[in-house]
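Example S7 (structure tokens).
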């Protein structure tokens, strides 16, 4: 049975309907990331699971129990918010134990849980400090620790790293992944608009747009076989290159044609039979383009070179459009230099121009 099951849930704010019959099953011990741009409904969905928003229709089940109308405290969940929301005059120890004291948990049990959580999060040496004596990363660890002491079956994270600088985000992201591994069978639902967080943390990613689920899959599935143009463009940095064209048939099989560019598609995995003449969009990741002498596609010239340490991103153009190529950091190129690009059909994605769906 799923640890969390969202069944045909609709959420409305007066006359405005946010969700309409949304369903999602999350397995016990799974790390699920809700990914999407601002306003896509990911935090609304999380708040509905937490009980902070009432649902207009549908049901929410947690560990085999219908909790649709249960109070948040009775759902067996713990939540970590974007803001730390720590009590400024309390020590770290007092902040972490406050909820347990309100629940009249025995003092020895409180001490045991706080010490265990502090050890997991490596903040034992901070227990007697106040929040104003901590860094941003340490404060967020305390906020996570306050949720951990509840010993909940499901943890909900609402963009917990958004207020941290890049280095702290990287460090704490690793800590959260390590924490999930240490806790074993604990289910985590994590909301973010940051694709790097989603790709590195998730067992499965739920990509959302305009209050609808676009695709559910492992990070590898989302990255390598995006279900539509939105997912393909939203996931990946640098962004996937898109080229408009059409499918043509010949004696040896279908080809992608765009102006002078042609690409045999014998290595492409179509979900159905290709239709000659169909207008399509070809997508190819920058790292799947190979810089060659002549190349499958020639007549490109280097426009801009972006050294990024281990990698180099080269922007090149043929007059009709611009393409990004991701290559080794040792690769040297200069603006104006001619460039040929090798393309492997096994590594491209094709989408119907009319619907945006993967072919």
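Recovered sequence:
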């Amino acid at each position: 049975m799923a640890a969390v099951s969202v069944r045909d849930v609709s959420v409305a704010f007066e006359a405005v309907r946010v969700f309409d019959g949304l369903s999602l099953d999350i397995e016990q011990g799974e790390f699920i990331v809700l990914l999407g741009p601002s306003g896509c409904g990911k935090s609304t969905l999380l708040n509905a699971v937490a009980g902070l928003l009432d649902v207009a229709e549908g049901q929410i089940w947690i560990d085999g129990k219908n909790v649709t109308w249960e109070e948040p405290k009775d759902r067996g969940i713990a939540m970590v918010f974007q803001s730390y929301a720590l009590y400024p005059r309390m020590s770290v120890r007092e902040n972490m134990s406050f909820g347990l004291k309100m629940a009249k948990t025995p003092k020895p049990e409180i001490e045991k849980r706080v010490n265990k959580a502090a050890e997991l999060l490596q903040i034992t040496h901070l227990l007697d400090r106040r929040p104003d004596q901590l860094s941003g990363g340490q404060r967020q660890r305390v906020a996570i620790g306050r949720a951990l002491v509840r010993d909940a079956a499901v943890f909900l994270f609402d963009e917990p790293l958004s207020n941290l600088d890049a280095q702290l985000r990287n460090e704490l992201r690793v800590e959260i992944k390590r924490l999930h591994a240490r806790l074993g069978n604990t289910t985590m639902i994590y909301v973010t608009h940051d694709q790097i967080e989603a790709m590195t943390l998730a067992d499965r990613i739920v990509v959302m747009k305009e209050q609808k689920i676009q695709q559910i899959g492992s990070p590898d599935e989302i990255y390598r076989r995006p279900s539509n143009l939105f997912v393909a463009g939203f996931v990946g940095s640098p962004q996937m290159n898109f080229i408009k064209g059409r499918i043509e048939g010949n004696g040896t099989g279908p080809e992608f044609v765009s102006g002078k560019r042609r690409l045999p598609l014998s290595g492409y995995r179509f979900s159905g039979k290709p239709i000659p003449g169909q207008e399509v969009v070809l997508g190819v990741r920058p790292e799947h383009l190979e810089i060659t002498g002549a190349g499958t596609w020639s007549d490109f010239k280097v426009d801009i070179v972006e050294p990024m340490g281990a990698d180099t991103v080269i922007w090149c153009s043929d007059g009709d459009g611009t393409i990004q190529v991701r290559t080794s950091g040792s690769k040297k190129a200069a603006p104006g230099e001619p460039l040929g690009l090798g393309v492997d059909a096994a590594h491209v994605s094709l989408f119907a121009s009319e619907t945006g769906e993967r072919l």
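Notes on this example. The chain is about 25% helix and 35% strand.
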